[in-house]
Amino acid sequence: MSMVDDAEAIERIVPQTRLASLIRAILPYLLAALLAGFLLWWIFLRPAQLAREGAQARADSEIQAGATKAATDALNITVDVRDKRAAIDALTRSNQDAILSAAGAGAPVDPAVYSALHDALCLRAAYQSEPDCAAMRSAGGSIGPAEADTWGPTPDDPGGR
Fold first, then answer.
1. pTM: predicted TM-score of the whole model, two decimal places
2. How buried is residue 122: exposed, middle or buried, by Cβ count under 10 Å (0-12/13-18/19+)?
3. What's the pLDDT score for residue 160?
4. What is the DSSP letter of 148?
5. Which tens digit of pLDDT belongs to each residue from 117-157?
6. Is pLDDT of 14 > 80?
C-alpha cells in the first residue's frame, strides 16, 4: 500500500474512532444513571405500588365477601318468605276444613251476617285479589259505619229476656 492509501484509510477510520471514544466516555455515566433510576424505582416506587395492589386486593376480597353474604341473606329471606306463605296456606286450609266440618255448618246464614263477613274478609290483604271483592276495591276499600243492632237487647239492657 501506498501512503495515500494509508491516509485515506485513516480518514475513514477517524470518524469511527471518534464515535467509539465518545461512547466509551458516555457509557459509564449512562449505565450509572440507569442503575440509579432502577434503584430509585426498586426502593421507593415499587413498595408503594405493591402496597396499593395489596390494599386493592384486600378491598376486592371484602367486596366479594360482602356480596356473598348479601346473596346468602337474600336466599335465606326468600326461603323464609316461601315457608311462611306455605304455613299460612296450610293454616287457611285447616281453618276452612274446620269451619266447613263444624256442627251447623250447613245451616243457613242470615244474609246480613254473610254480607258483613264477606265485606270484612275483603278488607284483608289475603282476599284482595278475589273477584267478588272487586266492589270493595272500587268503593275505596271500606265497609262503612256499623248499623244499629235491632235484633235483641244490649248488654246494658238485660230486660229483653
1. 0.42
2. buried
3. 47
4. P
5. 888 888 888 888 888 887 776 666 555 555 555 665 555 55
6. no
Q: What phi and psi, each to the nearest 5 degrees, are found at residue 45?
A: -85, -40
What pLDDT is attached to residue 81? 96
Decide: residue 127, CB within 10 A, 0-12 exposed, 13-18 middle, 19+ buried.
middle
Average pLDDT score, the chain: 82
Q: Collapse the DSSP code of 60 into the 3-class scheme (helix H, G, I; strand E, B; otherwise coil) and give the result.
A: helix
CA-nearest of 146, 151, 100, 85 to 119 is 146
Exposed, middle or buried, 61 (CB in 10 Å: 0-12/13-18/19+)? Answer: exposed
- Residues present in the chain in total: 161
Residues with Cβ < 8 Å from 19, sequence gap 6 or more?
none
- Three-class SS string for 105-142? CCCCCCHHHHHHHHHHHHCCHHHCCCHHHHHHHHCCCC
